[in-house]
Amino acid sequence: MRQPQTKGTIKPHNSWNPPRCGVPDIPVPADSSNGRNRQKRFVLSGGRWDKANLTYKIIRFPWQLSKVKVRKTLAEALRVWSEVTPLTFTEIQEGRADINIDFTRYWHGDNLPFDGPGGILAHAFFPKTHREGDVHFDYDEAWTIGNNLGTDLLQVAAHEFGHVLGLQHSSVSKSLMSPFYTFRYPLSLSTDDKQGIQYLYGTPQPPSSAPTIKPESHQPEPESNEIPYSEPDACTTDFDAVSTIRGELFFFRSGYVWRLRGGKLQSGYPALASRHWKGIPESVDAAFEDSVGNIWFFHGSKYWVYDGKLQATGPFQISDLGLSVPNVQAAFLWGTNKSKKTYLFRGAEYWRFNTSTRRIESRHSRSMSDWRRVPTSIDAAFQDEQGFAYFLQGRYYWKFDPVQVRALEGYPRLVGQDFFNCPVASSSSANSL
Ligand SMILES: [Zn+2]
Ligand SMILES: [Zn+2]
Predict the structure, then answer these.
(1) What is the pTM of this model?
(2) Where does the record place its Hemopexin repeats (predicted)?
């Protein structure tokens, strides 16, 4: 089984083995360079089932989970596809089924051996191939359901069922049919997945009289478009990310960046962030400069690293860092000169992260309550030259004292007022938080 070809991207210097689906990717056209792949859409395998009512059978089960739970989970994974098509799926325990699901190890008779824990998680065969309907899961994964302590069966199964129904891997990063495993709840199809499956099978039959639960309408996630957003106003906006870079302070918002040197906004800013960092995603969730001068950007389930010469590598999957949740909200380098550590923040959790091994130190998150008087769900964080940390949320920020290890009295304060000389808005006060 081929390892992931990092298509059109630069190979990471250290070898790694991102958890992924074992179905080989079809080659990407050579003109899709620099990550701006305009052909982002579902890909069909060429085959489809000629009938809408399909049966399935579970041959062997994973040892970690009860059979009942596995049955329920696989049914749920099939439901995301049946909800948007005329397809139905019925489990059978005897006789021949259309879809055969097995948990198996290493060599298992189909020339696509599994590889033990990690790496390849599962694979499935397309319709109209000689093994159509076969779905194999690697028995050696730590299968779990609904938590991020192992490999989530629901997510992986829903993806494999997409193959069994005729969908190839998609290059749309948030799609279920993206080849790399990410943990995301609730399970849902992206617009791309839905368009793909409906292209093959059409939309659901008109509902019978029975009240059916309509699939939630998933807001179409804006695909990364290339139209610049209108320029935001630093006095009224909140920020996606802030980072100290080469001793200057950069504020990021919707593809724009503000640059402050010695506390002063530089002329010509805000400017498009892509002027500094070619290929930077349209918006970033978090940014930081590491101790060797690389600049890291996070967006959704991916991250990019720019070296000192502003050469980009990536995107890489955040899951490769050992982090099983996407959407890092803030990141910064924190500590005294000798022992700076990188921290990643999301909601009420944070992780310590080793930038040289590109792994989080522990899969188990720590609680934001360690950062006393700092709220949860921060948008951005950075450290100044004196060693104070700053945490932003909305239009406010907290200044954090490294000696007392807590946010200072008198905070939060308005970002616009203190960093961008915005007029004091009498109406907005901190207690509106
Ligand atoms: Zn796959
Ligand atoms: Zn197999």
Answers:
(1) 0.49
(2) 232-280, 281-325, 375-422
